Amino acid sequence: MIKIEHLKKEYPNVTPLKDVSVEIRDGDVISVIGPSGTGKSTLLRCINLLEKPTEGHIWIDDVEITDRKCNINKIRQKMGMVFQSFNLFGHLTVIENIMLSPMDLKGVSRQEAYDRGMELLRMVGLAEKALNYPDELSGGQKQRIAIARTLAMDPDIILLDEPTSALDPTMVGEVQAVIRELAKTGKTMMIVTHEMNFARAISTRVFFMDEGGIYEDGTPEQIFEHPQRENTRRFIRRLKVLELSIESRDYDFLGMAGQISAYCNKNQITPRMANRIQLVFEEAMQNLLPALKEPRVQAVIEYAEQSESAEWTLRYGGERLDVTASSDELSLSVLRGMTQEIAYAWEDGAELPNALHLKIRNA
Ligand SMILES: Nc1ncnc2c1ncn2[C@@H]1O[C@H](COP(=O)(O)OP(=O)(O)OP(=O)(O)O)[C@@H](O)[C@H]1O
Ligand SMILES: [Mg+2]
Known about the structure:
The protein has helices at residues 40-47, 72-77, 94-106, 110-123, 139-152, 169-183, 196-202, 220-225, 230-236, 253-266, 271-288, 323-326, 329-338, and strands spanning 2-9, 17-24, 29-33, 55-60, 63-64, 79-82, 157-161, 188-192, 205-210, 213-218, 239-246, 297-304, 309-316, 339-346, 354-360.
């Protein structure tokens, strides 16, 4: 079991991990997902002490590895790490690469290391390459060798940091297949990946990293089907988001039109859709602002690339104010022409509890 308490990792310019506390149970197969730069690699590197945490504690099976008196080399033997780049020794054959650490670090006999090495090579489908040099192998084969080499140390915990992202797309499958088999063996695994279908298929648990830590932790079904929190939902559905905040009736509508237009260009939204996104915003604000006591609106547009659908959400404060029910139909009719659906919701306890959702018509 791995227990992490108040882990913080600070670099001179950035603090990717602010305060992480989590327990990882034996046999958990955890996919670590999230936007770039959110500390996924840093988390793995802190767990096997390739990075020294700035603050906090990590225990592995009741041994505190962040304690200065702890024997790091002994702990590291319990953990194997697989990197994007395979780091095989070019001057050693495949089988020698695999035999090296067990003989050097664990004092395993040459024969035993060889037998186990061959067994592992069979497992990753590469027994016939035992006497080749790494240069003679494809990227996918090298990564399978790197996995076999990690397993040769018989680690309790396997950490994999984007093991397939440096590979030619045709070779991703063979490496994923090896990892998928490994995941079934009951070993504790943590794997950073950008491949969502793979993450979903192999893991028992998913960490979505954002905002300086594990932002959401759940089963693959929870994270991929029913994400509870905003950023997870946006990431999973690959939503492109623009947030605008309006603080006055005389807001800079030209400036905002410019921002919306730049957002549409950047995300290659079709001109027709972009036009509707603009018009719906303007029209909705024209309806809404005069009705508000305090002219404060938070407007968010979300565009889903895959389905090419876009939706505005306008949040505002004050009493319950459902413009879809109260307003005169004439002005709403313009909005209805450009939207597929207009829905109002009251979000109890929110700072801006009124929410108006406007789903843009995309045909
Ligand atoms: N050795 C370092 N020195 C300074 N900053 C670092 C160092 N390693 C990482 N960082 C910074 O810490 C942040 C988190 O990096 P990390 O590599 O953990 O992100 P990640 O989630 O793995 O991203 P990616 O998906 O791009 O691999 C980044 O802003 C990165 O630039
Ligand atoms: Mg990384």
